């Protein structure tokens, strides 16, 4: 049974930083692409960042390039999202995703 557990969300002022973590279980973590999505109030869920299994190459949404960094620790079955220079429009629930499975989400609120 796949489980994805996010943590690290919270309230931060604009310009601040947060690091999200997603710890996975129930599948061969190192073999899978891992992604972070977010959903702001009244908006559709959108892809924020993705990290591939082989070689660890990454993709980012244009809106977060240069500010967010996705990384993974296969020994810990964990994927991270380092978020710097946060903006109020980054307020959303952030979700961890792999192959159609989702975590419960973690709330990030950025105050102006």
Order of helices and strands: EEEEEEEEEEE
Instruction: Look at the helices and sheets and give the structural class.
Output: mainly beta
The radius of gyration over CA amounts to 13 Å
The portion of residues assigned to helices is under 10%
What number is the mean pLDDT? 96
What's the number of helices?
A: 0
Low-pLDDT segments, ≥5 res? none
Strand content: over 45%
Main beta-sheet annotation: 7 strands, mixed
Shape descriptor reads globular
Number of strands: 11
What can you see in these coordinates?
There is one protein chain. The chain is mostly beta strands. It contains no helices and 11 strands. It is globular and about 40 Å long. The model has no long low-confidence stretch (mean pLDDT 96).
Task: Provide a compact summary of the structure.
With 112 residues, the protein is mostly beta strands. It is 0% helix and 53% strand.
Features:
112 residues, mainly beta
């Amino acid at each position: 049974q796949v489980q994805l557990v996010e943590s690290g969300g919270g309230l931060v002022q604009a310009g601040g930083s947060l690091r999200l973590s997603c710890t996975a279980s129930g599948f061969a973590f190192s073999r899978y692409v891992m992604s972070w999505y977010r959903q702001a109030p009244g908006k559709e869920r959108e892809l924020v960042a993705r990290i591939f299994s082989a070689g660890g190459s990454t993709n980012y949404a244009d809106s977060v390039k240069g500010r967010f960094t996705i990384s993974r620790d296969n020994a810990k079955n964990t994927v991270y999202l380092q978020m710097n220079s946060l903006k109020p429009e980054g307020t959303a629930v952030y979700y961890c995703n792999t192959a159609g499975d989702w975590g419960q989400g973690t709330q990030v609120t950025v105050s102006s």
